[in-house]
Specification:
The protein is α+β, with helices and mostly antiparallel strands and 193 residues long. It has helices spanning 2-81, 85-97; strands at 118-125, 130-133, 144-150, 153-163, 168-172, 186-192. A six-stranded antiparallel barrel has the order 1-2-5-4-3-6. It is elongated and about 140 Å long.
């Protein structure tokens, strides 16, 4: 019976050894498969990079050709623009032969066309010294000076600083404010700077 146990023990030990051998072979195969996949992926990346680099090199070559052509064109145009020493003399002789014609103009009368612009104050910010008026791009420009009127009397002067389609912002001119400006005061064109 002991011999049977020994045989069985040897078989069991051999089976365990065979299992370990099979597990080792399996691990080795898995490592080879993973390495093969990594090499294929690396190969694909290298192929893509190589193709990209070739296209980039072709673009650089084409750009260098265009640069050379443009440089040649600039040289040709520069040469055409530079006066040659022999061409100066005839031009000088010809210019002395040209007579300037005289032209007499009849007197011209110029009338002042003062713009008739009027609007109203929309907002007042006394802290920052500016107002918003309802005159836009059609009626006023940056730098225009407006008179603020209440009850037919001027109470302040402002200068347009920003203009939009429908409104303008103007700063209150120091020394020209007789009374505090309020919304709905009238605005009239005073002049441009």
């Amino acid at each position: 019976m002991q011999s049977m146990f020994r045989r069985w023990g040897r078989l069991l030990a051999g089976g365990i050894a065979a299992g370990a051998l099979i597990a080792g072979i399996s691990d080795s195969l898995q490592q080879h498969v993973a390495l093969d996949r990594a090499l294929k992926a690396s190969s694909a990346r290298e192929a893509w990079m190589s193709a990209w680099l070739q296209r980039a090199a072709q673009r650089i070559i084409a750009l260098n050709r265009r640069l050379d052509e443009t440089t040649r064109d600039v040289a040709v145009l520069t040469a055409r623009l530079e006066p040659s020493p022999s061409s100066d003399a005839p031009i000088v002789r010809q210019s002395s032969a040209i007579r300037s014609p005289t032209l007499e103009l009849s007197p011209v009368t110029v009338r002042s066309l003062q713009r008739q612009v009027s609007g109203r104050v929309l907002q007042v910010n006394p802290t920052w010294g500016f107002i918003v008026v309802d005159l836009g791009r059609e009626a006023t420009r940056i730098g225009d000076q407006l008179r603020i009127v209440r009850n037919g009397r001027p109470i302040a002067a402002v200068e347009i600083e920003r203009v939009s389609h429908t409104a303008s912002a103007a700063r209150i001119l120091p020394g020209y404010e007789i009374a505090a400006i309020t919304p709905d005061d009238m605005v009239e064109f005073q002049g441009s700077r």
